[in-house]
Amino acid sequence: MIARQTVLITAAVLVGLGLGASVLRGSVPVSQAQTTAQPASQPITPALNEASARLQNEANTISIVKKYEPGLVYISTEQTVQADPFGSMFGGGGSQVQQGVGSGFFVNKAGDILTNFHVVQGADKIQIRVFGSSQSYAATVIGRAPQYDLALIRPTSLPAKFIQPIPLGNSDTLAVGQKAVAMGAPFGLDFSVTEGIVSATNRRIPIGFSVNGGSEGITQNALQTDAAINPGNSGGPLLNSAGEVIGINTQIISPASSGGEGQNAGVGFAIPINAAKNLLPRLQKAGGKAVYAPRLGISAGLLALQVTQNGQQAIPLGLGSLTQSAKAELKLPAQGVVVASVSKDSPAARAGIVGGTSTRQFQGGQISLGGDVITKINGQDVDSLEDLQAGLIDKKVGDGVTLTLVRGGKTRTAKVILDAAAFQQGN
């Protein structure tokens, strides 16, 4: 799904969940406890009444579903695509309508619906349906965030009585083993519910799409769950035992041998809700346009130069790609991002980050020397631009990040404040 940071999983692939998404996103046309040792003759009395516990858990799940399923939204889309641009020359061609489905949920009384970007990407027509009603209502995109695989849509004529927001939780406080309830429309089966646990809280995987419309995701921390989620669950909520949204379902790992559309294998991923909460104000003010992840305002100084049909292509690399001898000769750290240049009036410039003063060519590439090398962001190792983006992706205007820098063999730290300009495309 992403070439820049590949996760090798035996006979498995990451696939998206939206039935109307791109191929990489799973496109499918719609048509332990301690005890005191006891003598062998004295059976150990269970500390937990399993039947009672099971009933308590069932009651909790039923309560969650009854109270919050009305906040779930079924999304259907249509997109007109060119079937064969040359077909008309031979009496065929023309266009066809591609349909798809996904999920979403209300986040406020205004009727705003949070979903995945890939659910509504490229859609010419979006319709939603709410729990308990067969009526469909038109909806429009009011904000999109491709890099986060998130979008905010709003129905145009939905009666207020149908708008039932689901409370948003705090994904930063989650613990592995907590209950997880997934809601959505797997394989188009609308308003379905499954249950599992939070399997991991900081699983780094590629999510989202590049700003130029490609399918390259930005590495982010995701929630992993074994609650059954499948294609069509995209954009649906993942809830805790309090009925709060803790994540937005976005991807699954599916065995490659299963064939056809990706299916659940007990490993699914959700975007932490705190990332979405940080984005919501920006999405609501986007006016249908895209919002972007923050940028520091630097360019990479280690480049691999490749010749393509369209000319020479420069691919940014981390120092980890250089040999030990090369780094020793150039007096560079073991890993990090070399800074070639710093944009004027950018967050990096105001933090005193310095670009290179000279450039050295080598076979197949070039490197800028004399400037800073970013080796960590908020204490996390950095060896690519993607690592930097991963450390920035959940930030909002006014937040700060701490960079560890190496220049001339000396290490220092710099606090970078992300102002509004850091969130503009091309900064």
UniProtKB/TrEMBL annotation:
Upper taxonomic lineage: Bacteria, Thermotogati, Deinococcota, Deinococci, Deinococcales
Keywords carried by this UniProt record: Hydrolase, Protease
InterPro entries (alphabetical): Chloro_Bact_Ser_Proteases (IPR051201), PDZ (IPR001478), PDZ_sf (IPR036034), Peptidase_S1_PA (IPR009003), Peptidase_S1_PA_chymotrypsin (IPR043504), Peptidase_S1C (IPR001940)
Keyword Transmembrane: no
PANTHER family membership: PEPTIDASE S12, PROTEASE DO-LIKE 8, CHLOROPLASTIC
Protein name, UniProt field: Serine protease
PROSITE patterns tied to this protein: PDZ
Molecular function GO labels: serine-type endopeptidase activity
Source domain of life: Bacteria
Gene Ontology BP terms: proteolysis
UniProt family annotation: Belongs to the peptidase S1C family.
Gene3D superfamilies: 2.30.42.10, Trypsin-like serine proteases
Signal sequence extent: none
Domain PDZ: 302-409
